[in-house]
Automatic annotation (TrEMBL):
Signal peptide: none annotated. PROSITE patterns: PROKAR_LIPOPROTEIN, TAT. This is DUF3426 domain-containing protein. The lineage of its organism: Archaea, Methanobacteriati, Methanobacteriota, Stenosarchaea group, Halobacteria. Residues 39-58 are annotated as: Disordered. It comes from the Archaea. Transmembrane segments: none annotated.
Amino acid sequence: MSRRGFESSRCERPGRRRVLAGVGTAVATLAIAGCNAVGGDDSPAYEDGEVGAVDGEDRTPEETVAAAALAETEINESVTPLDSLSIEAHEFVLEDDFRGPTVQGTVENAGDGRIQLVEVRVRTYDGNGEQLGRYLATTGDLDGGVAWAFEVILLESVEDLEGYDVTVLGTPT
């Protein structure tokens, strides 16, 4: 019996090990949940494209420098898939100048509003399906009902390219 007429049950505070185990479990659960979000609803949908049988020469060292200066590889984290943006057409084109291998096509803003930033992403693949690189083209202020012709410069050698896929993302105003 306690002083007030009832028996106190022993309430232990959780030990340090139990607290650390609980924190570790919570962190692991959150990490797994975060990984599961990759490829979720916010992931862009890519369309496949073929390189086909192309007969072309590699770039000269000077052409390689020029192509590398113009090829975009840094993605913008603020862009997301938008229902109003669509790729109307795309194809692999081997240009007979410093640009060399490219993916060219058109994107349409079928919405009413202006899109502040539009980004076309192209991933390149070899004959084994291994990703070789990721390249992009961007434009700003694409009004509703307007199409944009894009060109993405690829830095791989023509002999290494077997296929690509392409998607479009944007940031609304």
